[in-house]
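Fold this complex.
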Amino acid sequence: MMKKLLIFIVCLFIVLWFCGPVLLIIIAALTPSSEYYDVTRLLPAKLTLEHLESLFVRLNGWKATLISIQTALLSILISFAIGLPAAYVLSRYVFKGKNLFRLTILLTRSFPVIIIGVPLVTLYLRIGIADSVLGVSLAHSSMILPFIIIISSSILGGISVEYEEAGMVFGLTRFRSFIRITLPLALPGFAAAAIYAFVLSWNEVFISAIINLTNRTLPAHILNTAMTSPDYFKFAAGTVMALPAMVFIFFTRKYLMSMWGISLK
Amino acid sequence: MKKYFNQVKALDGVNIKIEDGEFVVLLGPSGCGKTTLLRCISGLEAVTSGEIRFGQKAVTHLPPKDRNLAMVFQSYAVWPHMKVKENIKYPMRIKKFPKEEIDRRTKETAELLNISELMDRYPAQLSGGQRQRVAVARAIVLEPAALLMDEPLSNLDALLRVTMRSELKKLQQRIQTTTIYVTHDQVEAMTMGDRIAVMRNGRILQFGKAEEIYQRPNNIFIAGFIGSPQMNFLEMSVKRREERLELTSKNLSVICEEERAKHLIDSGIDQVIMGIRPENILLTEEKDCVPVEGTVYFTERLGGETIVHVSTESKRFVVKVSGDAIFKENENLRIYLNVKKIRLFHPETEEAID
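Structure:
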């Protein structure tokens, strides 16, 4: 009994530790400006969507959101196009330097994107894709690609080779066997990986802020607008930024866990 | 045909000719190359050197899909995202069979394997034995040039394995498809195979009918690998006495028949390893038998038969007698070795001498 209570208290503490700030941010985002600076009130008497509305409409946030979504989708597309073959090779073949290859992929993550950001601007200016969705997507792909490769190869590794080989014996080429047999089996996992990639791109602020001036993604746009506005505006922006990630992670956590090899029953 | 994985010689000079309609078993311990050989035949593995021919047609470099083979995998590899009927029909669809043909064959095969009621289920809803039937159905429905099976029974429980063993064998006799069957289970090999190829270290050591391999194993490895309890081995000295050759080991001495003696003299060795199967050691004297004095060390009573371990001066022999028999430990027992049934092996090359 004591033990149960103790566990309950510890869990409650952890939940409050992580969810408390999120909750406060959401509440602050919905607090009317008149009440926000009222020191006598802890919680607002009524909630309002006013700040969110001005963020999206008056500050052109909807346009930035659209660009963010385009950027994320394009990044996912590029990353999968390059990453899937690599993941397939990693999961299906034994070759010299395989572990080195895997390590190198992970190592690219140890370069902060900031490092490639500035050189990219000059490069993009020269080839004419500066200030475009494609430019930012390419930069985001460089950040997402390692994750896609590592995650996808572990997803493919979890699908028995024999299914694919059966396809080949029963009349398919290796490629078609992958498309018809392995891909459908891997699809839920890939979807989860894509969502994870979406969140990565959605949250990335630095590159999109320096590469694009007019076509800014949502976080870069917010950096430019809301961060120079009153606090409740910042909270409204924070809420908008955090929401998709939280929703996606909630729905895909089972897959995310299994992707990293942790089973969650 | 050879297959190397980098420096590892997975298949080191394999040469085998399988007749049309034959049921051939590739038998050997794990790592002997039997599965690799099967995968080379299927085309899933490329050969390093050599040639694979189906009839007159060289298929060495054909992709698996063009070899007109079907395979039953160890894990069955029944596609989990397709229903049973789709699993069976899909290969025929790939090969563009007419629709009526697909339906007819699917129905017939399902009846043959007793899976008609399972057609609308997904593989996850099937038991191991049912999934295995589906895998077999998917393979035979194509009426392939040859059927390859990679330890198909190893994931089933013991009882089901025995049932499926006879069913698979009967099925093969009915459809008369050339079958190559990989297993490490000697009982499976003996009961199912028309011929057995015993493999070790990437080579085929012996290829022949079951009784031939059992009665006349051509080296020590096969003699010891096949048969349970294992064959008794005993090192003996070769001595020439007058016109005849005598094999001795402590109080045991065996006079060699003329034929054997000739081979022994030819090989010029003075030590030889004698092998005798537990059922060829008797407790009563018969013709061509050599007596040895010993004491009972241990008895295994299996009901239908009794395994007696008998200590003699030279060796502890394992003796198999049919029926239930009771022996006291340390009881004196005279056993009789049936000289006609012994096998002699070269102590270094381990090859049989005959």
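Residues 3-225 of chain B form a domain with the Rossmann fold fold (CATH 3.40.50.300).
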